[in-house]
Amino acid sequence: MIIVKVKLSDIIDAIEMADQYSEDFLDRETGEIVQISDMTMSIDEREEAYELLDAHGFYRLPSSFDIREYDIMEDFVYSLPKSQQSRLARAISGRGAFRRFKDMIHQLDLADRWYEYQASAYRKKAIQWCEENGLEYEE
Known about the structure:
mainly alpha, 3-stranded antiparallel beta sheet, two-stranded parallel ribbon, 5 strands, 57% helix
C-alpha cells in the first residue's frame, strides 16, 4: 500500500470546518478527505460509509470534540495582557460564551490577533495529528 504525503492545508481546512454534525476521514492512499455528515445522510447510509472507510483504512481526522475550540479561546485569553484578560475571561464564562467572545474581540480590536492565534492552534493540531498517525505532510 502506498501512503502519500498529505497536504497540511487540507488537514487544517478540515479542522477549521469541523462541526458536531460531521466527521472527516483521510484516504491514506490518495490524500483525499471524505466527509460523513449526519445532516445529509440517513443512519443506514452513514453506517455503510463507515464500514467502507474502515475496510479501506481511512484515518479519522480530529472531530470538533477533539479540537476543543473553547480551550483555544481560553488559552488566547490568558496569553493577553492582564487588562484585556479580565474582560475576555468574563465574556467566555457561561452560556453564550462564543458570541460574547466574538463581540468582545472586536470591541477590544483583537480580532486579527485572535484569528492568527486560532490559525496557529489549528496548524499545531494538524501537525500533531499527522505525527500521531505516522503521516508525512507537506506545506
